[in-house]
Amino acid sequence: MEVVEHRKAPTLKVLNYGGHYVVNLNSIALPSRNTLTTLAMTNQQEPTIPTLYEWAGGMPVFELLTDVFYKKVLADPLLEPVFKHMSTQHQLHVAHFIAEVFGGPAMYSTEEGNHFKMIQKHLSKHLTEAHRKRWVQLLLESSDEINLPDDPEFRSAFVAYIEWGTRIAVINSNATDLTMNPEEPMPKWGWGVPGKPYQP
Prior knowledge:
Layout: E1 2-5, E2 13-17, E3 20-24, H1 33-43, H2 52-56, H3 59-74, H4 80-83, H5 90-101, H6 107-112, H7 115-120, H8 129-145, H9 152-173
Antiparallel strand pairs: 1-2, 2-3
Helix pairs in contact: 3-5, 3-8, 8-9
């Protein structure tokens, strides 16, 4: 009987019985129960991390937020001249846009417009840094009034998007044309560096 070592697996022995090769199972080192348990735990799915949209409370929260916010806007001496001619649906469109960016349903992009059209609406509006700061201030005040989640992780992600979005709006408002791809996808905003919601 000739013993042949298997090159790819040194612990595996193949026995040659007159031209018939048989695997010697006793030579195979099987993993221990502890090893199998560790592998099973490693392969388990991580807990699902909610989207910012879900953590905030869903669409009713975003629609309430823009309702409270735009009432403040129309009562504000700096912002009222900019927004006084907006359509009655404007605040809902903004709610649906932000909700979709934060991981909510694609209501805005499938029913009301797209990222290109949203940016296009800001062209030649000549917004200033003063407009932007007041807009952000009133939105954050409205967020507190409706009890939007105030944990550090959510608010850091929320404010980061608002800062980014409003600064882009000011830049575009002082342009006369738009070179952006009309099919540009909607922005998608997540938890950022914290990676997930606050866990005490």
